[in-house]
Amino acid sequence: MESGLRGKVALITAASKGIGKAVAEALASEQCKVAICSRTKSDLVEASKVIKEKYSVDPLWCICDLNKNSDIERTFEATVKEYGKVDILVNNCGGPVPGYFSELEEKDWDNAYDQVLMSVVRFSKLVLPDMMNNEWGRIINVTSISVKQPIDNLMLSNSLRAGVIGFAKSLSTEVGKHNITVNNVAPGLTLTHRLYELAVLEGKENNKSHEEVLADMAKRVPMHRLAGPEEIASVVLFLASKQASYVTGTTIQVDGGFTKGLM
Predict the structure, then answer these.
(1) CB within 8 Å of 55: residues ≥ 6 apart
(2) Beta-carbon count within 10 A of 88 CB
(3) Domain residues of the chain, as ranges?
(4) N or C: which end of the chain has fewer CB within 10 A?
């Protein structure tokens, strides 16, 4: 299948490992020009090395704390300086701190607001002018199944990721006339460092090992296994492709059937 992505410029956030890195690899495999960012230089260097060796694409990498608008602006400017534009924006971020409502402080809400919601808003605002001028663009937000089925002990993620969905739906109606699509991918239980951390936390609460917790998680999924990051990335790749040119304003869960809702 010809994706139509060769030569397109893709900026992927939080892309030094996990789902973000898998997305960067998927886009590089289609010969996109790739820019990646995260907070940790060593992880970025390693991810860039892997992508270059596997796909002969040498990514631009930028250190970026998604909670800082100055870092976001610097990352966007570096990408435009290197490649001239951004055709595809993939907004991805790590999860905010877990916790029930009674455990969270106002600073936790402030941090989650910047990390989860405002990073999407800020990056989208930066890339849209060129996308509209070029009459082509893709904005894809990696969220969580919590937007369809809230998860216990993840009050911040449940709240702020739902905000991303509302933002994306509203934005899709504004920019559709410019041939720009805005969509969300909602991963289910996926083998990432974030899931490992949650498994360790749940294990401590229930006197179990994290291995037992991960095994229990897999049993909750109708497919009886956890997802690999590349399985999430494949849906992002489709939404970026020319084949998805009439798909916008939607949220696609990639969860092995975990969520129980009909819509």
Answers:
(1) 25, 28, 29, 31
(2) 27
(3) 9-190+228-254, 191-226
(4) C
Residues 6 or more apart whose Cβ sits within 8 Å of residue 218: 189, 224, 225, 226
Query: Helix (H, G, I), strand (E, B), or coil: what is residue 249?
Result: coil
Q: 183 φ, ψ to 5°?
A: -140, 170
**pLDDT digits 0-9 by tens, 211-260:** 888 888 899 999 999 999 999 999 999 999 999 999 999 999 999 999 98
Between the alpha carbon of residue 257 and those of residues 108, 152, 226, 238, the distances in Å are: 31, 18, 11, 19
Alpha helices in 190-260 (DSSP H): 193-206, 210-220, 229-240
- What pTM was estimated for this model as a whole? 0.95
Question: Letter for the amino acid at 78?
Answer: A
DSSP-assigned letters across all residues of 7-74? T-EEEESS-SSHHHHHHHHHHHHTT-EEEEEES-HHHHHHHHHHHHHHHS---EEEE--TT-HHHHHH
